[in-house]
Each structure stands twice: as C-alpha cells, then as structure tokens.
Amino acid sequence: MRSLPLLAVAALCACSYQAENPQIFVQVDGIPQGANRLEVQLTDSAALTRPYAPTFGQGTLTSLQLALDAPKNPGTFTITADAFDPQQVKIASGSSEGALPGAGTLQITLAGLPGVYGAACDMTSSTPCAAPNQCEQYVPSDPLSGICTIEPCNADTDCPVTSPAATCVVFPGGTSKACQFDCTSGGQSSCPGNLFCHAVPGTGGKSFCQGD
After folding, report:
1. If 159 and its partner were Cys, which of 43, 63, 166, 207 is the partner (CB 3.0–4.6 Å)?
2. DSSP 70-128
3. What is the pTM of this model?
4. In angstroms, rounded to a whole number, what is the distance separating the alpha carbons of residues 207 and 204?
5. Dist CA 147 CA 162 (whole Å)
6. 3-state helix, strand, coil in the chain (%, to 5)
7. What whole-number distance in Å separates Cα of residue 138 and Cα of residue 173?
C-alpha cells in the first residue's frame, strides 16, 4: 500500500495553542483533481480558531494526512476543510468533530460544491452553475444531463486543468465550442468523480460525461 503524504502544517496565526500538546491527525479524502490548496480550520471548545493552508500541485493528490497541534482547551473541537482551485474558487468542502483528550485520527471526506466547473447541473435550477460556468444540457428532454462548463472556448488551453482533461469541441446539437469530457473510448474512467459517461444521441455514437 502506498503511504499518503503527511504534512505537519504551520498555523497562520498565534492563538492559545501549545505546540507541545499531542498532535491531532486528520485524513482528508476526496480532494478534487482541480484543487491546488486546502484551507483547514480547527475550532476548539472555547471557539478559538486556528487556520492551516496546505498547498500542493494541482491534480497531484486525492488524499492527504495532516498533523495539527492540539488546542489548549479540552473538549469538543471541529475541523473544517475547504478545497480551492488556482482561480481561488472553492470547489469542495467537508468537516469532522473530535474531542480532547483522546482525539486520535479524524477523517474528512470532501464533497464537491454544486455549480463549479466540471460538476453536474440541473437546468431547472435558477442558478445551476457558478460564474463563469454555463450549464449545458446533453439531452434536451433530461434536465439532469447537464454539465457546468466553459462556453464558448477556442482551444483546449481555455479549459481549466483537470484530470481527466477536457477538450474544447463543438457542443452536440449546437455551433459553439465548450469544454467537454469525451468518454467514447475511455468510458467512465474519462469522467471526473461526479459525472457519468453516457451516449449522446445525434453524435454518431459518441459518449460524453454528464449528470446522471
């Protein structure tokens, strides 16, 4: 089994915490491919907060282990983790609670936020995607077949960096190019975690990643 990166993260502020206290270990899973940093905050039983900001190469991690200094105040504490992309857009979030003494190892699984690039979208929603993304629907009769994407685009380099990568091609049924995940050859493995590979009518047998 390959070991996960372990970061002893330096805090960004000086609060009532003691470095000699036992450390809290946090396993963060579900880091999106588009993320290049996390904002992690520990809030103790006295509502004192301490932020941490681990950074990493975009698309290089899906999981990360953090070693945090334990707070001075015993009792229940909360750790929140937000993932951001290079454009400073928050794209996933999660949290977990523990208690001192005896915190042990906590686990946070990040969940993607609705409306970000590469997310599924619902055309019936009043705000299906966050700017500058547009909700494009692959099947006109299925409002859940949409994807939040960049449209128009001119080249693949206009598409945000993700793994799997998107390409800038004409959107089925239209004339404008959009960033899309073509899964005709690769199947589901060509899709980001929250999208599904489905055949698109009228494309000559092509499949694209979309909402379920």
Report:
1. 166
2. PBSS-EEEEEEEEEE-TT--EEEEEEEEEEES---EEEEE-EEPTTSTT-EE-TTSSS-
3. 0.61
4. 9
5. 14
6. 5, 40, 55
7. 8
pLDDT in tens, 11-41: 433 333 334 455 789 999 988 777 889 999 9
Cα end-to-end span (Å), the chain: 32
Q: Cα 148 to the chain's mean position, in Å?
A: 14
Q: Domains for the chain: give ranges and CATH numbers.
A: 6-112 (2.60.40), 120-210 (no CATH)
Hey, how many other C-beta atoms are within 10 angstroms of the C-beta on 96? 16
Residue in the block written with tokens 């089925």: 172
Closest CA to 192 of 180, 203, 200: 180
Contacts (Cβ under 8 Å, ≥6 apart) of 25: 65, 66, 67, 68, 104, 105, 106
Render 26-82 in DSSP notation, one character per residue: EEEE---TT--EEEEEEE-TT--EEEE--B--TTS-SEEEEEEEPBSS-EEEEEEEE
